[in-house]
Amino acid sequence: MENKVAKSGSATLTVGDKSVELPVLKGSVGPDVVDIRKLYGETDVFTFDPGFTSTASCESQITFIDGDQGILLYRGYPIDQLAESCSFLEVAYLLLNGELPTASELTEFEHTITHHTMVHDQFNRFFQGFRRDAPPMAIMVAAVGALSAFYHDSTNIHDEKQREISAHRMIAKMPTIAAQAFKYSVGQPFVYPRNELSYAENFLRMCFSVPAEDYKPHPVAVKAMNHLLILQADHEQNASTSTVRQAGSSEANPFACIAAGIACLWGPLHGGANEAALNMLKEIGTVDKIPAFIEGVKNREQKLMGFGHRVYKSYDPRAKVMQKTAHEVLDAFGMHDDPLMKVAMELERIALEDQYFIDRKLYPNVDFYSGITMNALGFPADMFTVLFAVSRTVGWIAQWNEMISDPSQKISRPRQVYTGAPHRDVAPIEKRG
Ligand code: CMC
């Protein structure tokens, strides 16, 4: 990666009797940043920003978000155009390489990914060690980390070719592993990938086929799967992507870094929100219980899961696309009268009109509609975050690769404000307390 951030001015910071002039840097779009790299060296003070609410942790050329305008661009292309016009593998190629593929580039990329979808046969046995009721996300964290044992030949991160091989392996094998985690958790035999199917079709078939009956996905289900994969493929420096970059900054191998990203994604405030949103709908149960639930949210007894976002403060552009997709799936499968869906639609209506949510700029995020869609496609709630991990893998890899090839990259090592005990001496045990 060639660094492109340029100086556009300067800012002066005065701390006590010391003043330091800090460069102000400009990206291609988005707010300028104050470059504080020399701050500690020149003033002996750190900055304090828990949760990184005001901090750009890296330079990146992959994804741009404008949270106030509700804009999300992958390599400059708006997310709704990509979802409407492209297959997931076209978008994956774009995220990895910076440009949309030509027809021949896409054919070659599809061939490469398709022909790496099988996992080593010994890997299949790795699953046997889990309890039969293991949550699929727990299996994912372990299984993806275990790839570094099975494919250790592609872990030299300083070799560009090996980075590419490990990237292709992970993008290709992630749906296979996710489907295996699902099959294991429901006590069904693994279904092997089929090379004549698209990425989305293949994944659906590996999840829903059984030896007694082949599964042929409905075209609306394939389109919805393609949308789910594209919309969640990357999202700038979110918690799991930052985790992947942080793990990768120590030069850990790519499989271990992606496993770290999966672990972070699992939490209910991040990728786990789609599962939490569906569980919330089940807990509410019927439309007449919604007002009491909303009151509970206002009294801070619970959160409205699938609502709100750290960056989007007008609307989540992914949610716009996913809302349409969710309705298409509900129409195709005749599910609009499903009680859960009725609760979801009514909750959305009430929350969008309620002043409490309007004042706090709390809109449904992508997880609200992706949970509804995945439920309609037949996935149980504990598979939702697994699907998110399948989509996000390409973003994690693109970001990891960008970091490794960034000349300004350093090991990620934040500092702290220490508020614990100052120096004290160890007393003999009989004199303590
Ligand atoms: N339900 C009710 N109130 C909320 C919610 C919510 N989902 N989210 C934020 N608020 C309130 C919060 O109580 C606070 O109110 P006040 O100003 O009166 O104290 C105000 O809105 C600002 O919230 P915040 O906690 O400062 O916002 P944040 O940027 O730190 O949190 C968030 C962002 C996504 C963690 C949060 O909105 C949330 O927990 N949402 C539910 C979980 C969820 O759906 N997560 C998926 C995010 S999208 C997918 C992804 O990127 O992973």
Give a quick rundown of the structure.
This protein is mainly alpha-helical and 433 residues long. Helices cover 50% and strands 7% of the residues.
How would you describe this structure to a colleague?
With 433 residues, the chain is mostly helical. It has helices at residues 39-43, 79-85, 88-97, 103-114, 121-126, 136-150, 160-186, 199-208, 219-231, 239-248, 254-265, 273-284, 290-298, 317-332, 339-353, 355-359, 366-377, 384-404; strands at residues 6-15, 18-26, 33-34, 63-66, 71-74, 77-78. α8 (199-208) packs across α9 (219-231), α11 packs across α18 (384-404) and α12 packs across α15 (339-353). The N and C termini lie far apart (57 Å). The model has no long low-confidence stretch (mean pLDDT 94). Residues 235, 238, 269-271, 273, 297, 303-310, 360, 362, 365-367 line the site of carboxymethyl coenzyme *A. Carboxymethyl coenzyme *A (CMC) binds next to α17.
Identify the notable features of this structure and list them briefly.
single chain, 433 residues, 6 strands, 50% helix, globular, binds carboxymethyl coenzyme *A
Strand order of the largest sheet: 1-2-3
What's the total count of β strands?
Answer: 6
What string, H for helix and E for strand, traces the elements in order? EEEHEEEHHHHHHHHHHHHHHHHH
Instruction: Calculate Rg over CA atoms.
Output: 23 Å
List low-pLDDT spans.
none
Mind describing the biggest β-sheet? 3 strands, antiparallel
Helical percentage: 40-55%
Q: List ligands, each type once.
A: carboxymethyl coenzyme *A
In terms of DSSP E residues, the strand content is 5-15%
User: Whole-Å distance between the termini?
Assistant: 57 Å
Structural class: mainly alpha
Shape: globular
Question: Helix segment count?
Answer: 18
Mean pLDDT: 94
